[in-house]
Amino acid sequence: MTTTYRSVNPARLDDVVAEVPLTDAAGFVAACRTARAAQRGWAAVPAPVRGQVIGNLGRLVRANLETLAQLVTREIGKPILEARGEVQEIIDTCDFFLGEGRRLYGQTVPSEMPDKQLFTFRVPVGVAAIITAGNFPVAVPSWYLVPALLCGNAVVWKPAEYASASAAALAALVRRSGVPDGVFSLVDADGEATFEGLSAALDAGLVDKVGFTGSSAVGARIGELTGRHLQTPCLELGGKNPMVVTPDADLSLAVEGALFGGFGTAGQRCTSLGTAIVHESVYESFVGSLGKALADAVIGDPTRDDVLYGPMLADRFARRYEEYLTWIGDHHRVLGPIGRITADNPRAGFAGNPADGLFYHPALVADVRPDDELFRTETFGPIVGVMSYRDLDEAIELANAPGYGLSSSIYTNDPRSAFAFRSGVSAGMVSVNNSTSGAEAHLPFGGNGKSGNGSRQSGVWVLDQFTRWQSMNWDYSGRLQKAQMDTQTISPDLEFRL
Length: 498
Description:
CATH architecture of the largest domain: 3-Layer(aba) Sandwich
CATH class of the largest domain: Alpha Beta
Strand order of the largest sheet: 12-13-14-11-10-15-16
Number of domains: 2
Shape: globular
Helix content: 25-40%
């Protein structure tokens, strides 16, 4: 039975952005079957031509940048400056992969036998099922869709329901870029129908690769499911991202990085700052400065250029954030009010009317301990913990302790500290004197531990997710040459001494 999902503007809850029919598991399987039928024809299109299609998509997105950014802001409440940056990320990704259509290189490899050549080729995996979150409703999907299509795969994309209008807009641009019918499909479904449909599609041999961005818990379920089919998914999961502040750090820069990394997009990024780990000599100064910066920050209407953050993405994220606030204990020191911003719990300088949407106070929690739930677990929302350390080895140990491994940051002016942190931290991404948030289209993006399975997106590294290596040997000697048996041998005089 078809149900309808209402996508609501979280900054204005009376504004229904879209009403989207959700399909069931059978609808997901049907889309995968269509993709399977279309994939071989798409793979037969020369890679440089597929690259031209990606270039077309980049130009279409550029022409529609402002419209798409405004839609993202309206649908998920992301501040408009960040929304424009998100759309620019799609353009950057297309610009990069346009050229990769001419660089899907294999290698010619010398053989150990005469009159024989060895070759390697990149070949598409087949059908890719892509499931994405809605906090980056168009940029993160492009990290999957663009390289997957470039490499000759067919794609079935299941976006987050609460970002369905943004997804539909991006899908319309993809279809008009020159991608043939059936090669790309958008499927709207809830989580359980998607999982059931994915399981059935894998059983039927219709899906060859799964890409998933979302929570660590759901990622573990997908990893278990695909593992039964001897597949390795591309998993981009949550993070509890640390930021270390050393005694020699530029403290004002560190505060600025914590403000953006911890509270931009209302802390609803997988790369958001989780815990600031600050040297005891500058601890109180950092806490006080960050508290003041937060108090001065503008929160509210996401259509304004000057807001730090707007609302929570949707009601379920607001409810979950309220649960995180219950983890604040008696031993913690909280700077400023917490909870939902209302007339009875106001925020000075709020931009707009807080009653219109899902707006929450930022929570800065000092004196966090290693055994706190607030320290160990990802908190998806505008909450940052702060704890102290004595030496860098202790800071690195604390940075790794929660078991995630997505992003990390260190603020220091000592190269030795920077490189010691890089070699010791378990995160897949390290920033020096920059925030935990921020990605560029030509760098590998991804994490380890509870943050992912080591797969990487962006840059040339993602090509290994959407292609498989195939080797070929061509013997033109006219006789059977047996490897390791018919090879030429050289007889050295290894007893020779000067």
